[in-house]
Automatic annotation (TrEMBL):
Start and end residues of each stretch annotated as Disordered: 590-656
Biased composition (Polar residues): 591-607
Biased composition annotated in UniProt, kind: Acidic residues: 640-656
CDD domains linked to this entry: BACK_KLHL10, BTB_POZ_KLHL10
Signal peptide: none
Domain BTB: residue ranges: 36-103
Gene3D superfamilies per record: 1.25.40.420, Kelch-type beta propeller (2.120.10.80), Potassium Channel Kv1.1, Chain A (3.30.710.10)
InterPro entries listed in its UniProt record: BACK, BTB-kelch_protein, BTB/POZ_dom, Kelch-typ_b-propeller, Kelch_1, KLHL10_BTB/POZ, SKP1/BTB/POZ_sf
PANTHER family listed in its UniProt record: KELCH PROTEIN, KELCH-LIKE PROTEIN 10
Keywords: Kelch repeat, Repeat
Protein name, per record: BTB domain-containing protein
Amino acid sequence: MALCLSDSETSMLTSPLLVDSWASTFNDLRQRGKFCDVVIKVQDIRYPVHRLVLCACSDYFSALFDGGWGSGEKQEIELSGISPEIMTSLLNYAYTGQVIITSQNVEELLPAADKFLVDYVKQKCCAFLKKQLTPLNCIGIRQYARSFFCPKLVEAAHNFILYNFEEVIQKSPEYLMMNFNDVHQLISDDRLNVRLEETVCEAVFRWIRHDKMGRISNLCVLLKGVRMGLLDPEYFMTKLKGNFLESMGECRGLIKDAMKVVCDLHAYDNNTISPHGNLFSALIRPRLPFEILFAIGGWSGGSPTNAIEAYDPRAESWLNASTIPVADIPRAYHGVAFVKGFVYVIGGFDGVNYFNTVRRFNVATFEWVEEPQMLHKRCYISVAVLHNKIYALGGMNGSDRLNSAESYDPVHKIWTILPDMNESRSDSSATSLNGRVYIAGGFNGQECLFTAEFYDPGTSVWTRITPMRSRRSGVSIVSFHSMVYAVGGFDGVNRLRHAEAYCPRTNTWRNIASMNKPRSNFGIEVIDDQLLVVGGYNGHQTSWDVEAYDDTANEWYEIKDMHICRSALSCCVMSGVPYDVIKRYCVPRDPTSSSRDTLDGATSSINAEDAVLSERSGITTDDEEDQVLHQPEALRAEHDLEDSDVDEMDESESNL
């Protein structure tokens, strides 16, 4: 009987079981010494093997058995420069596809894999060493990787040195042994991660002093890589001006130019320096940041805004990054989170609607997409990130304050309901520390709260902690140097300047220095080892000002203002992304860069800008007042329009 089949139909059958069976069979034959056609000798150990198997995993053995080096017909081949233990590992890989890499064998295994052209094992050794990078060994690993042409490991080690430079020069004796070219490459790199340029200058001096006679001739070249215009004037005058350096011909001109820049910078307001002017001078060009802070959305000019600004901490400048696409509704009293290259904007309020929607922004492609919605609508939401999961806590759904909580898995795109908190709270704030999610303050419908609690994902239990010293609605909290900081807010009577810090070890709060200005419903984040508070409401008007907290000195100082006055905004920090992405959110360092290299350039237009021009001067016009009178009661108190107890409870939440 003939089957009527199409002549054009074909099918490819792949059997992974058969491939696995071959590997298992060949390994069994090797162990039993069956059908082996060559012996590999290493020291006094002989390994009967199959030429075909070794050729399949190594071009070295293919050439060797094909007659290269006169070994084609030999029945026994002796190999040098490898130990029996490492040879055993490579043969096990050839027959099973498995290799065990440890801290004890990797330093010998990688050169052997390189010599015998076992590329996969070499790649895995490089990946293993990349995970082992520390400030103590990174310089040595970089040099080791260069020796065996491992460019990706060289790059990873170099980037590690750049990012951890301050710790590397303190802990690694190998820094002092580096050659001039390597030191010069580091010192000159815009990506060098230092908060103070004095650190770079001291690193140069230390390297020179280690071999002064042999290295002093390199000093002036290295100092050209130091941004001397950014040095503290007192440090400059003490360490450079009047020093023996000035007597060195090449250094004399360099120091003279730098002194002029230092004097000019501190004689005038730094804000007068244009990114198209002195910023491009090699003496004053800021290093590139490793992180960028985003200020997103909020309440501005009498309505919600979709404006985004990006803060470059090394240039101490804000850029108008880009507006959220027109299709997206501006929102305030929302939450944001940054997870693995994406900004998530969660919940909030547009003046009419309460949202459970989630929008995701790809910082590399500038694309917005909708993510799965939360299980509950949440305005005045508290958001935290722990172990790459997003926690959405409390808030208000338009009628009720919530004690519910949920978490989002960005990988599987699933929201999961969590156990309820111990009490309902909206207009609170959340952060994560040591594997826990903390939430503090807020408003329960009757009073501003001073209570706080944490959630442990391991036990799925909420646990109360010692209450704060002050009631705080519209508060912002953040983890910083193993403490939880609660800053500002509204206590039912006044907007607050004061702040406090919680120690999980002792379960106690302590007062810290007060901010320079009172504020509630503001953004808070930690960037470049600084705690920043951004914008907010001071009881009379929204604000564009920004302050930073130095926990070592226990003091606050003002930094560059945002371009837009706003409260009810939310902030997050972008980190762990490639430099070509970071640079698009920075003030351009290269004078040839155009504004197209950033998101919209330093002068991008923002939808909300016209609406806040009068607010920047601290004036509310009659027209704006009329507009505010027609806003939902939820937001009227931002302009203090009513004197009732309810309206006084909070610029934001307590009016709901």
